Amino acid sequence: MKKSFSDPFYKIIIAIIISSFILFCNSVLVYTFTKTNLKTSLFYPQNISSLISFAKEFSEIDSSSTTKSTSSLDSSYKTTNSTSSTTTKTEDKKDVVVPKENIDLESLEDMTNANNNINPVVNNPIRDDEDPNKADLVITSVGIELGGNVVNLEYCVQNIGDVTARNFYVYLNNLNNQNVNLSGMGFKTLEAGEEFCKNESTYIDNNNNIYIEGENTIRVSADFYNDVDEYDEGNNELTGSIVIGEIRGIRPTLRFSDAGQNEILSNNQDFSEIGRFQLWNMSPGNDEEFLFRGEMRFRNIGNAGLANLENIQLVTYKNLVYERVAEISVENNLVTFAFNQFSLDNRDRTLYSIRADVNEGLDGDVIQLQLVESLFVNAINGRANPVLTMDINGEELSEEDYLLSEYRIFNNEEAIMMKRYYESIGDSEYTPGSTSVIGLEALVQVEQPVSISGVKISVNEDSGIGENSLEDFNNSFGPFHLFLNNSLIDTKENLEIREGGQDGVPTDYEIYFDSEFEINGDGLLKVVFDISEEAEDLGHIKMETAANNLLNPLLQNNRMPVTPDMLRGEAVGSLVTVRTSIVDIKRIDGIEDGTKIVAGIDDFTFMDLLLRNNDLGDVLFTEFEFQAQGRDNAADVGNFTSAIFIDGQQQGNAKVFQNDGPTIFNDIAIVIGSGEREQLNIVMDTMEISGPGIIEMKLTSAEGYNVQDNSPVKVLNKDNVLSVDNPVNGPKLILVSSGILTVERGELIEGGRLIENEENVKILEIRLSAEYDNIQVANIYLENDLNNDGVPDRNRVGERVVFGLYDENDNLIRSRMMFDGILRFELPLRERIFVPEGGSTVVTIKVNVNRIQRDEHVGIPLRLALDSDGLQNEYFGIRAITSTTGNDIPTPANGWGDAVSEIFITSRAE
Question: I need a surface site. Which of 131, 250, 417, 549 has the fewest CB within 10 A?
Fold first, then answer.
């Protein structure tokens, strides 16, 4: 940094040289400051009493000429990078990745085109000094990135003003989504020149409207409410951007489907079903209850007018009781159902039945309803999300998809009418080994008693399993039981091929129940079967019958046969799908390969696993297998002990890793409820002898059973079965012997005079930063080193001042005197300086100046420096202890770092 010869600095130098020439008999010592960060040579006279006044004027010298130039830009990058690294490494400890609010982790799969590596945006503010003595807050950098379903936002704010900024406020908002603010954060103080950096993480899930699909521009503003009197109120904001792909989890989805079948109605019958549909909450990856409100409007496209129906209502059947669930309005052959509010859990479904009283005069007419308009809004935590998407099997609904089944009205008192039982369940899923599965419920209605010699039950065209051979069906389903009004009538072991049919065509398969039974009034025929343990996953069967499949019906009063024209109606059962109980497993800890930990650390979470159960029943896990592999000093994995925790509770016993095979946890009993999820924390204890080294672990097997039917659970990792060939790989951890401590000078404190009787004069700030472990600083050794040669200068300055060591909160830790140019702070356990892993702390050296009575005590210089060469002690100025093991951290070969003050001169009060 160049100086002009008109500068007061050089005027003083010239004056000194002239005076020295005149007083040639006196000796002049020249100190040349050769430290790399000192760019200017400074001459200082000694033993010249006539030049004592030089010491008084010394404080006017521009000490910035002897200071290394460090821009706020460099500082902000260092701080930002350090914060980012720490966030990645310690997520497992902060429980950030999967917090207790049940975050939607499945939305990980729904995010595309994410920009994950956006460089920090940096502000390099410029100001002049025409208006001093004011604070001035600027956002110096903004960095934003997407990791999984977590948005990490880092920003740094610096006070480039002249005085402390007090009670300022940082405000964050999304410029592309003005309706919702991210957050605001209030801070207490920021000293002049001080920079503060912060990391904030926000989750993208169904409870979060902050982010939108596409570009999100985040603005960070300091002193948002202008509470601080600033030099410049217009330079305090900066923006960063990130691109987020599709976020399906933010847009709840309802699946709509017809749940009825073509049926016949009796004229003059009250509370008859005229339509049935199902709503299924298919919102991805959220296990919270959804609250819906909205409308559904249906048009009757049949020839039976709605005006001929009375008391239309929408009902559900819960707890054996019909419940009305909507307000009804009928106009212009349209019926509207208005839902005030109803709830539907994720992955849950509800059947709705439209009922009405059928009047006379409708014989042979048809009622068929079609959904023509729907509007649903989801409300979560009082916030309205976008309008819900109605779909079927993930696809947009076509006009045909909105059409409900046909209901035809007949008026024949002697007819035998068959229909599906109103309260029969909808489509359902069962695990292999399930028993007593209801395949069909058919309601048979007669006006007078009828005897029947048997009934044929057929396989519907929607069925299929394996190669669709008869053998595939019979190996998966059966035996089949026929009940009438819950009394067993007949049992058949297998399906058969109907006369004239062929193998491989499911619609040619049937069951012929040939036992006689009698129906008087209403008869409920029910077909029940078992599913074998060998049934193929996703195999499905639907059964059906019709009134004309009732064999040899005879009227009991006259033993006359019922003619075919009197047999009306059909009944189709629910689709029964075989689904293996499946648990998806994902690693969610976010720990990166190459993360460093201190050998000897205990209870380190090396893997967080999220297990999500499907909705086929509770699952009991009884065994997990892990494999570990180490290198270097960590090659003996028997030096590592691991345990499984859930919500802080250990599951089973801790296990020692095996060198020659899997480590098996087989004394556990972990239950995951149907449709629920559980987070497992796999923790590890290490030993000091394992560092330096590398260790990596992987989950290779998990064994569980469905509690309801004891069927095995299929555990999937990335859509394939978990196995040795498809394991869940944990992170590759690097074990080091200790944490790393970095020492540097903190805020620059200008040199000047040490005036007698002054107290708490700041001399030097030392910034201590830690990586990989919490660090305790036990000893700090400093020296008076005027010319930066590493040799203490014994000039009796220690007799004039008392040194105090202060913590970051300005609390005095300990006071000490300097002897022979050496200052030692040796701290007992309770006074040690704590430096958090991934963070830093600042300690300050202050002095109290004694009274100066003698002239030779005026003008004594002080430049306080860390003993960076180790000549005075083995610690090179710092004795640091890594917290994990309690061992001293070895002194770095090049020392801890530079921490050197400016020059201060003792002086009398004026």
Answer: 131
